[in-house]
Amino acid sequence: MTGLRHLLSAADLDHETAIAVLDTAAQMSATQSREIKKLPTLRGRTVVNLFFEDSTRTRISFEAAAKRLSADVINFSAKGSSVSKGESLKDTALTLQAMGADAVVIRHHASGAPHRLAHAGWVDAAVVNAGDGTHQHPTQALLDAFTLRRHLAGDADNPDGVGLDLAGKHVAIVGDVLHSRVARSNVLLLHTLGARVTLVAPPTLVPVGVEAWPCAVSYDLDGVIADQQPDAIMMLRVQRERMGAGGGGTTGATSFFPSPLEYTRTFGLDARRLRMLPDHAIVMHPGPMNRGLEISADAADSDRAVIVEQVANGVAVRMAVLYLLLAGEREAWS
């Protein structure tokens, strides 16, 4: 496999490459416990965060990652920019090219926008997909895999599970799969790393064509927990803003399920379901959480939950991705 020029999809990562990224992230994570967290690796490089959708965790995580590698960072938000005046993605890209961007981290509401930016010839920069529509979010899948490996594959002698994959582990991904780029990316990457994945959702929130995905599908959360005893359960946010009518309210959401209360009873993770999980199982969520809808406060704040750790691991993983794309260490990708 030749070196990657961009990171657009979890499908870009074969087993060897994914392990290389996770191992590099472990090295980056170790540097973040030092008094001085900065590394000189990307000094003189410019990373542009190009966000056409609102974001808190991902944008700040990429900014922190680039700055801790000593890169210059330009944060671009569509709101208040020329994009709000009608400027096209192409013209925005040409502006970034003129400014000498070495990497462009893009989040866009349109599926495929990062691929277009990477391959249209508008920029010479490396392009990293920070989430495009309902399509892909590869660095989220990487940070989830990093977190899973640390808890499920690591031991006292190798706490980060360096060099290991997730073979034999079972991860249940529960909730709004239809609108989730996180679910799509995780299914691909976890399969690549040898894990078994089960999607659990109401039929209305399961995508058409899911039978072609490398995973199982269930509509019975209690059955999956009781019978299959997953090693990890990942709760997905109910994305009401992508559910058409009703926007951020409940009208659009209830076109996909009878009521929020019914959804919580059937597919929410509460204290009862938490007790049904194996003792070693961990609880994950990509954030932001709808507390009381897909996850209860008991579950979100329990000792099983690694949700805050996922955020911290995101910085190390994104440091690894930027380092491997920009620092000339192409052999780590091959």
Write the layout of secondary structure elements.
Elements: H1 15-31, E1 46-51, H2 57-68, E2 72-77, H3 89-98, E3 103-108, H4 113-119, E4 126-132, H5 138-152, E5 170-174, H6 181-192, E6 196-200, E7 216-218, H7 221-228, E8 232-235, H8 260-267, H9 271-276, E9 282-284, H10 297-300, H11 307-326
Parallel strand pairs: 1-2, 1-3, 3-4, 5-6, 5-8, 6-7, 8-9
Can you characterise this structure?
This protein has a five-stranded parallel β-sheet with strand order 7-6-5-8-9, sandwiched between helices. A four-stranded parallel β-sheet has the order 2-1-3-4, sandwiched between helices. The protein is built from eleven helices and nine strands. By secondary structure, the chain is an alpha/beta fold. α1 crosses α5 and α1 crosses α11.
pLDDT under 50 segments (min length 5)?
245-251, 330-334
Share of β-strand residues: 5-15%
Instruction: Give the termini distance in whole angstroms.
Output: 5 Å
Helix/sheet category: alpha/beta
Q: Averaging pLDDT over every residue, what do you get? A: 91
Q: Output the number of helix runs.
A: 11
Instruction: Assign a percent range to the helix content.
Output: 25-40%
> Would you list the SSEs in sequence order as H and E?
HEHEHEHEHEHEEHEHHEHH
Biggest β-sheet, characterized? Answer: 5 strands, parallel
Strand order of the largest sheet: 7-6-5-8-9
Q: Radius of gyration over alpha carbons?
A: 20 Å
Global morphology? globular
Kindly state the number of beta strands: 9
